[in-house]
Amino acid sequence: MTYCVGIRLDAGLVFLSDSRTNAGLDAISTFRKMMIYERADDRFMVMLSAGNLSISQSVREILQVEKVDRGPHEEPLTIWNATSMFDATRVLGSAVRRVYEQDGASLRAAGIDFNSSMIFGGQIKGEAMRMFLVYSAGNFIEATRETCFFQVGESKYGKPILDRVLTPATPLDEAAKCALVSMDSTLKSNLSVGLPLDLLIYREGEFRSDRVVCVDEHNPYFRMIRSTWGQRLKEVFEDIEDPRWDGGQAEHPLMTPSDRFEPMRKIAHPSERIV
Amino acid sequence: MTYCVGIRLDAGLVFLSDSRTNAGLDAISTFRKMMIYERADDRFMVMLSAGNLSISQSVREILQVEKVDRGPHEEPLTIWNATSMFDATRVLGSAVRRVYEQDGASLRAAGIDFNSSMIFGGQIKGEAMRMFLVYSAGNFIEATRETCFFQVGESKYGKPILDRVLTPATPLDEAAKCALVSMDSTLKSNLSVGLPLDLLIYREGEFRSDRVVCVDEHNPYFRMIRSTWGQRLKEVFEDIEDPRWDGGQAEHPLMTPSDRFEPMRKIAHPSERIV
User: Fold this and answer.
1) Exposed/middle/buried for A27, CB within 10 Å: 0-12, 13-18, 19+?
2) Which of A1, A121, A237, A265 has the fewest beta carbons under 10 Å from its own?
């Protein structure tokens, strides 16, 4: 598996990916999942990919040169001439479908799902920043103000902190921190996600970015996150009062009857029923 | 889906289950997942179940009366005469297999997995407390000092806090709080898990428990957990310094080169390659 997160904010975009690939637990390797396409002052796009590595690598290879036919009177559409991120994402969808045409039947014959998903975001001059989630069928959805982040891969461990913190108004650096905390929770609970990480921040309207860093186990900032977050989380946890089972005496009593539901009854012999 | 967690501590056992069952998003209902078997001063057992509801309900029905043959000279084994939790769990495994015999082929014909998993824990006089995770095939594993909790159902959202906090030495009430925090994260990020919750605490050597509560949306303690945890989490998050992209000047710099890995290169035109 893998874990990638992309965030679209008012201030810019944040991309974070891990680099673990596994074919079973005994075949773990490092493959980085981030691709950066930058033509300075014109377009800046980033793709993060999860799923079957042979599919994502083929998609990457094809994406750079993929052409979507637009009829006899127009130049074919590519990620280099697209005038909107929507069109660029159509090119990515087309690249996914091309790989499906090439490999889909053989993968199916081998009992392997055609499993691939990608986060694709960026900005093309003349348009606002946009971010898309592209599925295995080449179809895609776009991030909105209500849902301003996408995750692919092992997304569940790290989702709660994103749900709690992110809004479109979140500053870029804070969102990067949030993505790293989300990654930390995922790394802690799932072996199929691993270092190094690739982190990139894009500022609205810049059409380039040098805020790209590869975070390995020695990175001072990520080490600080990993130790501080775990430690502070435990402190907060300990600060919250424990449940009290003695009814009304506690400030926040636990043993209060529910209006609608009885406590579970107990079964004391074989013929007893709870319904 | 559903979410259940069982914890085995030195001091006792903690069980927590939600009550949401869904057949698609438009068919959501409330079915509670906890069963309590108590013969005072002799045995106390709790089962939490996840997976296909028709399977778990059948398993529950059968478990109370299931008999495992022990040859002509011994009374058949039941959960009521088992002298160890291991044997009682064998009875549960046998109940699962009986449901498989009854329904497995028809479910398969309908394209439905025989999907069911159960946490089964308790104490039988003469033995220490034990807790098991029972799979769809009726096989099972036991919680140990290194892995002192089991989850079934939507387990990923709530796993990081359990991983960070729980050890066999954790006090019972603190572990109950931890289970509720874990449930809160799951509820926040996944619609297929829902209130009310059933929470039960068992103290080592008591062979009974009255610490059983049904937690609905009005429960003062769980309301406190939900608001406090989210709020404090955000405060801790905000207290952690944001990443600084200006290299060595920060206390914990982010932009430090990795020994082994370069930052991702950028693709600026169609023929460029990153390898």
Assistant:
1) exposed
2) A265
Q: Which residues of A touch B257 (CB under 8 A)?
A: 214
ipTM surpassing 0.90, yes or no? no
User: What is the Cα A6 distance to its own chain's centre?
Assistant: 5
Planar angle of CA B20, B21, B24, nearest 5 degrees:
125
Q: Which helix (H) or strand (E) holds A189?
A: helix A172-189
Residue A177: which of B181, B242, B261 has the nearest Cβ? Answer: B242
Average pLDDT over residues A113-125: 96
pLDDT tens profile A188-215: 888 888 899 999 999 999 999 999 999 9
Q: Name the nearest CA neighbour of A155 among A16, A10, A269, A11.
A: A16
What is the mean predicted confidence (pLDDT) over B223-245? 91
What pLDDT does B190 receive? 83
Specify whether the backbone of A12 is left (phi greater than 0), alpha (psi in -120 to 50) or beta.
left
Q: Report pLDDT for B247.
A: 64
Query: In A, which residues are within 8 Å of B234 by CB distance?
Result: 164-165
pLDDT (0 to 100) of residue A25: 66
User: Which of chain B's residues have a Cβ under 8 Å away from the Cβ of A259?
Assistant: 216, 218
pLDDT band, very low/low/confident/very high, at A52 (cuts 50, 70, 90): very high
Task: Calculate how close chain A gets to B262, using CA atoms only, in Å.
Answer: 7
Structural domains present in chain A: 3-233 (3.60.20.10)
Specify the pLDDT at position A178.
Answer: 96
Residue B63 has a pLDDT of 95
Kindly identify which residue of chain A lies nearest to residue B215, measuring between CA atoms. Answer: A258
- What pTM was computed for the model? 0.86
Residue ranges in B110-219 assigned as alpha helix (H): 159-165, 172-189
B246 in reach of chain A (CB within 8 A)? no
DSSP A139-171: -EEE--SSS-EEEEES-STTHHHHHHH--TTS-
The strand pair at A140-142 and A28-30 is best described as unpaired
